[in-house]
Amino acid sequence: MASLSCGTAVCVVCLEKPKYRCPACRVPYCSLPCFRKHKEQCKPAAGPVEKKIRSALTAQTKMPVDNEDDDDDSVADFLNSDEEEDRVSLQNLRNLGESAALRSLLLNPHLRQLMVDLDQADDKAKLMRACMQEPLFVEFADCCLSIVEPSQNEDP
Q1: Which residues are CB-neighbours of 39 under 8 A, at least 6 positions away?
Q2: Are residues 43 and 37 in contact, defined by beta-carbon separation less than 8 angstroms?
Q3: Is the pLDDT of residue 61 over 80?
Q4: Is the pTM of this model over 0.70?
Q5: Residue 128's CB: how many other CB atoms inside 10 A?
Q6: Angle at 141 between CA 139 and CA 147, to 5 degrees
Q7: 93, 99 contact by CB (below 8 A)
Q8: What are the residues whose beta carbons fall under 8 Å from the beta carbon of 88, sequence distance 6 or more?
Q9: pLDDT over 70 at 63, yes or no
Q10: How does 19-42 read in b/e, with b if 16+ C-beta sit within 10 Å?
């Protein structure tokens, strides 16, 4: 399905330009009346990915995980790195803040909750792997990367 930033997405009820997505099934809609009408026949798309994310969250809060045999050390090294090449420039941070496409994605409460959970997680690498199985999160990550590293998305 097209993202809300794309001009091809339409409200599933009235076919107008959507502003929102159903938190249960992710289809676009444009207003509260359209959402109410859609909700009558909504089929939630909470599948194995969402269950995997929830189980990862539950596991991390119940008992700490020993990361010696995992690749989490590389993530920790990256997060603690002082190398300039690993940092996002101030201009790119501004570009992220000004992106209408990114703002549109961040209107989604499910994505915002994923971000909060990821920020608060003890085992960020494990939860990040689970989040990267979630299409909405992948769309968010791709949107960020296209803003920060646009040259890698544009082939000559």
Answers
A1: 22
A2: no
A3: no
A4: no
A5: 16
A6: 105
A7: no
A8: 96, 148
A9: no
A10: ebbbbeeebbbbeeebbeebeeee
Distance CA(72)–CA(90), nearest Å, equals 27
Beta bridge partners of 20: 29
Angle at 102 between CA 97 and CA 103, to 5 degrees: 75
38 within 8 A of 28, measured Cβ to Cβ? no
100-147 pLDDT, tens digit each: 988 888 899 899 888 888 888 888 889 999 999 989 999 999 998 888
Q: What does the pLDDT read at residue 25?
A: 80
Q: For the segment 79-104, what is each residue's pLDDT rounded down to a tens digit? A: 555 555 667 788 888 888 888 988 88
Rounded CA-CA distance 27/44 in Å is 10
Cα gap 113→110, rounded to integer Å:
5
